[in-house]
Structures are given as structure tokens and as C-alpha cells.
Amino acid sequence: MNAVITAVGGYVPPSILDNKKISKTVDTSEQWIEKRTGIKERRIADDDTAVSDLASGAITNLIENYEVDPQEIEVLILATATPDHMLAPAASLVCEKSNLQNAFGLDINAACSGFLYALELAGCLIESGRYKKVMVAGADKMSSLVDYEDRSTCILFGDGAGAVLLEASESDFGLLKSILHTDGSGTSSLLVPAGGSKIPAGMQSLLHRDHYIKQDGAYVFKKAVAAMSSVSGEVLTSCGFSTDDIDWVIPHQANLRIIEAVGSNLNIDKSRIKINIQKYGNTTSATIPLCLWDFKDDFKTGENLLVTTFGAGFSWGAACIKW
Ligand code: ACO
To answer: Which CA distances in Å does 323 have to 54, 111, 176?
Structure first.
């Protein structure tokens, strides 16, 4: 039994934060941001919108456009690094808001790799034969973790959500193979230090601004390029593919220069790489499903997609999907 993507949905909040607005609040310029990251603008959710609202926006969009019966969904896997609450799972709220009354739901957090990790788990559930319809959503409200006084991070992130429906199929389409990696020694290079069990939220963490995202940007950049390039090679080899067999590359959208460097390492022309970072910035768990949603009309049945990502943890991976 194979797991095939049969429907795609997306949602971004309406409010736009462009480079011009950012350059009025921190010491940067529109040109610097666009040149160093490729980002022109990002979407920011309002105070009343939590990640469960973003995810259910994407799922509702999918359900309406593809006329899916929400009662038939058996599992919801929500990839997010910004759940509504530290405890209870955001997936419970998403099941309620999206009317997935017969599904059990769970959150997973693998930062920017969350969606690919969730896709692999969903694929295994379907391949086991025990489940036939699994919803996978990637959603993040990164504006809740971003320090808008830190010019090296506030330029990068945005809010959004995407979702795909995986269904059991006896065809040879769908999720062909994915390879995922984790290296915890990278944790200190990219994290939100406080708010978890190591440094619970408190006055000290607020004073140190430790409830915001911190990173060694240049180091993360280098690691991302190397890891996404090598894991893409691994998954291609394990599928018996060369880059010529790949019709489209869907990379995690963190920085246009990371995407271009990975494309160049893989020797894949930019015309075959899907890029929407200019509109949304880095939406963490949502970049890949948002890209699938934005470009779904370009993918023809039977085409091969290479999806690759890198994020906090460090966590990274790649997958080949026959559309
Ligand atoms: N505007 C102007 N100058 C800036 C800004 C800014 N917004 N941000 C940093 N700078 C300055 C630095 O202070 C530094 O100045 P200095 O030379 O006087 O010390 C200079 O620019 C160069 O700094 P670098 O960090 O080397 O700049 P770089 O070109 O690497 O760009 C960036 C920084 C955009 C953060 C880049 O490193 C990056 O994108 N890294 C990847 C991080 C990332 O993607 N994190 C997200 C999660 S992980 C993931 O999704 C893969």
C-alpha cells in the first residue's frame, strides 16, 4: 500500500509585514534584506490568531476545494514549533476547529523539518495498512517567537500553514522514500532558550529576552546547505534516481541563497526549483506544504518531486514523491 497526496490546502493571514516596515524598526534596509535573504514580505497573524487557527484555515481550504468529507479523516499529524499552549496539543484544537470528529490528532515538533517528519510518519501509518486517510498539516506562528528588536532574525520569519491529505493507494505513486536525520549537537546554534522545562518562563527569561528565537545565522546557513545537499543525494540514490529524474525541487524556504546553493550543489537548474520565500519568508513547519499549495497546478500526474529541508535540532531530511 502506498501513501499518495490527493489534496493540498494552504492559509496565510492577510496582514503583510514588508521590508520597508521592518527597516523602520531595526537597523537594516529593504535592499539588505532582499539581497541577503530573497524575502520581500511576510504574513503576520493578529493577536487573536493562534497556530490552531492557521492550521485549520489550511485544512478547511483543502476540505472545501477537494470536497473531502472531514468525518473520513482518521489521523491528524500537526507539525508545529509554536503550539497554542505548552500543554494541551494544538492538534486537539485543530481537530475541533476543522470538524475532524473521527480523527485522533497529535503534534510533532521538528522545527523546519516538522512537515517532512510528519509526512514520513503518516506514510508509515498508511503503508502499515491500518489507516487509509491521514491529514498532515504544517503550521507556525513564528511571530510569537521572534524578537522584533533583533535584526538578524526578525527579517526572516513569517506565519502560515499548509496541509496535505495522504490516502492509501495500490498505485506506485505517492511517497516513494524519505530519509531523515537528527543531530542534537546543533541545538544551541538555533533555539528558543526559555519557556520549556530547562528554563521555564519567568522574570529572568523575560529580562534576557530568552523567550525569543536565537541563532548563529552564518553557521546555520552553512550547515543547511551541506545537509540539504547531501541528504538529497542520499534519497535520490536510494530511489535509483539521478537529478534528471526529478521534475521539481521543493526546498524548505529559509533563505534564497541557501536554496540557490543547494540547487547548484545538486546541479539542478533554478527553473525546476519552486520558490515562494519572497512572499512569505520562513514559515518553519509550513514552508513545504505552502509551496506545494502555491505550485500544485504546475505538477503533472506522475512527475517526481524532490523535497528537502533543514532546521533546528539540527533536524534535516529529503523525500521523493511521485505526484
Ligand atoms: N541588516 C543589516 N545587517 C545585518 C542584518 C540586517 N537585517 N542582519 C545581520 N546583519 C549584519 C551582521 O551584524 C554582520 O555585521 P558585521 O559584519 O558588522 O558583524 C553582517 O550583517 C554579516 O552577518 P552575517 O550573519 O554573516 O550575514 P549573512 O549574510 O550570513 O546573513 C542571515 C544573515 C540572513 C541570518 C543568514 O545567515 C541566514 O539566513 N542564515 C540562516 C539562518 C536561518 O535560516 N535560520 C532559520 C531557521 S533554520 C532554517 O530554516 C534553515
So the answer is: 25, 25, 10
Whether residue 224 has its Cβ less than 6 Å from ligand 1: yes
For the chain, the average pLDDT equals 97
CB-based burial label for 314 (10 Å; 0-12, 13-18, 19+): buried
Q: Is 9 helix (H, G, I), strand (E, B) or coil?
A: strand
Contact call for residues 18 and 109 (beta carbons, < 8 A): no
CA 118 to centroid of ligand 1, rounded, Å: 29
Catalytic annotation present for 252: yes
Q: Report pLDDT digits (tens) over 234-267.
A: 999 999 999 999 999 999 999 999 999 999 999 9
| Ligand 1 atom nearest to 33, measured from its CA | 7
* 187: exposed, middle or buried (Cβ count in 10 Å: 0-12, 13-18, 19+): exposed
Q: How many Cβ atoms are within 10 Å of 220's Cβ, its own excluded?
A: 21
The answer to whether 112 is a known catalytic residue is: yes
Residue 251: what pLDDT?
A: 98
Q: Give φ, ψ of 282 to 5 degrees.
A: -95, 110
Note whether 100 and 77 are within 8 A (CB).
no
Which atom, in ligand 1's list, is nearest to the CA of 284?
50
Q: Whose CA is nearest to atom 2 of ligand 1?
A: 28
Which ligand 1 atom minimizes the distance to the CA of 28? 1
Q: How far is it, in rounded angstroms, from Cα 138 to Cα 119?
A: 10
**Catalytic: 124?**
no
Which residues, given as ranges, of the chain have pLDDT below 50?
A: none
Catalytic residue (one of 252, 255, 291, 320): 252
**What b-and-e string marks burial along 255-289, b requiring 16 or more CB atoms within 10 Å of the CB?**
bbebbbbbbeebebeeeebbbbbebbbbbbbbbbb
Q: Whose CA is nearest to atom 23 of ligand 1?
A: 218
ipTM confidence:
0.93
Catalytic residue among 112, 154, 239, 291: 112
- Burial readout 223-254 (b: 16 or more C-beta within 10 A, e: otherwise): bbbebbbbbbeebbeebebebeebbbbbbbbb
Which residue's entry shows cell 489507516? 131
